[in-house]
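Technical note accompanying the year-one report. For the benefit of new consortium partners, we illustrate the data format agreed upon in the data management plan: each record pairs a sequence with a structure-token string. No post-processing was applied to the example shown here.
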Amino acid sequence: MELRILGSHNMESHGTRFETHLIDGILALDAGGLTRSLTFEEQENIQAIILTHPHFDLIRDLLPFGLTMRDSGVTVDVYGIKDTLDLVAEKLMEGSLYPPFLEFPSPETPIYSMQEIEPLKDFQVLDYTVKAVPVPYAVPAVGFMISSDDVSVFYTGDAGRGVSDAWQHAAPDVVLTEVTFRNRGEQTAIDSVHMTPAYLRKDVVRIQTAKRVSAQNDCRTHKPSYKEEIRVEVKHLAEADMMMSLP
């Protein structure tokens, strides 16, 4: 399994992009920064998209990606829980911003087909076995356990303290998670339901079977000045023998 990080932020600038990750060039995890890091040829290889929740920084590029696929004759399956798919259909796909991609270019071969999934039940996406697991967040949200052959990754998406409750339903080799706030922003993290490095440590050490923990969102900040402080705090976790990698 090849994991490519296309974006890992909730603010954008010349050097930052909204969050999206790409597995094996064909399966996208969220769609905030789906198009900006890929050539048109790479975009056209994508066959399915999994959405954790419907916040703007995770769904925005469904629109430009839809235009990329306009003449492909391909329908891309978009997977998510009901709350997520309902909001995406209502706010992005009704035709006022871009074409109504749920019925464009034709009702028979639309750009997108919405696939509602039920949490805690395995389902197939391409050649992957996937399970949606509820995670604590400000809106209904799920993380995803994605398995292929003998490798598995759990992508939490946005999540707050208590995400370790998911481990009773997932035993991943890799955890792809977020750290939005520095430790001294604890109250802000609690209020907005996001993670700090300290919360990450408490939740991640409970994964007894994990071989590697990858904190890919350590630069996801509301203020750019958080970036280096969070890097240092996550680095301390790595030095404490919690196998971490930074983007």
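Partners are asked to follow this layout when depositing records. The CA atoms of residues 77 and 107 lie 14 Å apart.
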